[in-house]
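pasting input
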Amino acid sequence: MKPERPALTILALAGGLLFLLPVLYSIWLSFQTAHAYYSGGLEFTVGNYGNAIGQFHFLRYLLNSLIVSGVVTVAGLSVATAAAFAFARFRFPGGNFLFAATVATLMIPSHITLIPNYLTLAQAGLLDSYAGLILPAVGNGFAAFFLRQYIRGIPRALDEAAYMDGATPLKVLWRVIVPIARPAILSMGLFIFLGEWNSYIWPLVAINNDDLFTLQIGLTRLYKLNAGEGLIDWPLVMAASTISLLPVIAGFALVERHLVRGITAGALK
Amino acid sequence: MCDIAARPPGRAACLLMQSKFIPYLLVLPLIAFLAVFTYVPIGVSLYLSVHTWDFLSPDMPFVGLANYAELLSSYDFWNSLRVTTIFAVVSVPLRLGLALAVASYLSRQTASARILRGALFLPSVTSAVSIGVVFSWFFSTDYGFANALLHAIGLPKIAWMQDPGVSLGVLIAVNTWKQLGYDVVIYVAALQAVPRELYDAAAVDGGRRWHVFRRVTFPLVMPTTYFLLIVSVIDAFQVFTIVDVMTEGGPAGATDVLVNMLYRVGFTLFNIGTGSALAVLLFAFLIVLALLKARVIGQKVHYEA
């Protein structure tokens, strides 16, 4: 990084905070009492968080979001990595066709599958279940495509050395390919996790049971419930919103580099 | 690749690797999930779009193209198409123009550029629901930040989300704020890939800043612009979450984008046939755009001649 005048750095910091002001202010708001907010005073409390968790089950929603996003990420990565390995390393009849069919899913907008998937899961009795939230998101054509490109860049000599030592293809995948492709797999995992954490329209149609709401659905319901009653308890709504934002904001600083690498690789390769 | 003369364990592995089943077993889970939840549903949508059904009724009569005819003669469809088109036509150039301008200042490797890139990028990875809720407060008529600012400089309140003439503009602004950082990050990567010598050469030729930008930078990032153009048009035609949170398509249909109409027709009116027909029309349009995008990604971008 090139050196620069500290004043410029401070100015940039101020500019960044100004850009994020609406979000930062909403977090600030979540620590105020509704009474003080509406009467123009200033009074701090953590009671809004207590309310969001006690009265509105936001701890439960947080847990649901973690479970669903976690399982989708692990299952999606496993399925995509196995397929990516096959597409990158094996020539088999129909392989090119199956790869083309996988890549084609990158172009398919998700709304076309909304009604049919609802029907499929209704028939299987899986609406209002974790499985109903998870299953439609597991097959991820983009992840398979991205990882296949990465695996093709790994020298074949490494696989061959392992085969010489008597390894099976699954062992080669697990002991050779996965460790080397770790950065790509991690970047992809972040994307899948974030996408699932933020996903909205599918949980909106698939879940009716309050116990299974994800954070996004719980937050919308809380906000609309308040709006329907006229006066919105903004500090409470902002506490709920902060619970949904904070894991992403906290993780962001740690993984920004991976995210940037992931999206620019997708765009420029 | 596979040495038949290898010692026995190696040969066994060879045979295994050549065994016909391994690659199929490896791709099977992916293809099975995609088949059930992506490929087959496209066919199902087409099938449902020529039938009439309400989720519950035991029979599902075939109606030919009646659902499409109904859509194309309805006010709601044309209204949604108009609203979505305005959303795309305004928000796409806004996003790309702002992003390129910002990125050309932030492509430097300095602490301040890094900080600002991070700040701009953050909203694009956060949830659209939270962003929608936060901006619902920001633009709320009686207690919002925007009207407090107007009040401070002596201007009257604006009913940001209740005024049909303003609400779509608010959604475009919020969406631009949220997505800008993504475009910036992509542009920065493209700008950093432009060889320094090209700028130095332009500088030697006495090019002024704007001149260098127009003649050197702009043409070189053209493939990236084209990529972002298509991505953001696809985004714009699929916008739903912030609309559902902030306005639910209102007031009076002023923000009733296509996916919002699809959700309403399918999941609140339970008009499966018409909803599917709408999904198919939107799908046909987006697939054309997606094919263009695939061509852009397919082209290798070389900056050196």
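fyi The radius of gyration of chain B is 26 Å.
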